[in-house]
User: What shape does this take?
Amino acid sequence: MALPRILVARRITEAAAARARRDFDALMAEQDMNAEQVIEAATRHGAEAILLGTASKLNAEAIARLPASVKLLANSSVGYDHMDAKAAQARGLIVTNTPDVLTDCTADLAFLLLLAACRRAHEYEGIMRAGWGKTLGLPDMLGVRPSGKTLGIVGMGRIGRAMAQRARGFGMRILYHNRTRLPPEQEQGAEYFATLKEMLPHSQILSLHLPGGAASGTVMTAEAFAALPRGAVFVNSARGSVVDEEALLQALTSGHLFAAGLDVFHNEPNFDRRFAELPNVFLTPHVASATIETRDAMGMKALDNIAAVLSGKPPIDPV
Assistant: This one.
């Protein structure tokens, strides 16, 4: 019996790649494919499903050009704002993603960004890489203490709640803004604000955990940054698209923000290099899910969805 034909349009971990080769007639990408490459490869292979990532920016026009053989677009990530999911669904394609598997690792990285921004990790490491050589006095190179601070969380989904759990270990007061209020058992004492505007003035540290795309829009505008208390710390491990980067740069250079920890940007990987020139910004290259365990799980979950759909079962994680 012939194996189902699939296109793996992005590089995946070796464990996931071995399963793809074993369980499917898989055409494996050597590099992450763009939209044109996806269309060409899927057509040539007669792919019934495509496992894809952020490089495959499938807009409505690209989706319309996919071969008729394609039944499923399986995103190997939680986010899917790199594609027009509504256009895909209107064409009758199933769209899936990979919720749950990257919750803990993303929250871990977000908390790393928080700690590194508060405690000037970028600057401290720079001193050591340069050879140190000069004792620091009591008033020198002072960070801010994260323990006991008030943390505002924007987006209290799985990752936002995991971030809150980590913050409780640091004795933080936790505020949150969400489209809807959580039940008490999920709040665990966190304080709900119906509007972001109401929450911002109380947030000594602000961390974003909401999805990108048109549904969210630009959340952190110049007005939003101005509403934060002076000396606040800003963390973003969610989506670059929800932040006005010019406004963020202004808030950082003016001293209104003490520091920022950033994993995501508008134009990746060619991000605005002005952020790299600022000493009070701790930067990581969109690696919140980058652990062996999580990246294996992301690939496997995408393949789980493909296996289910191509065997005639409902998708496990429909968008």
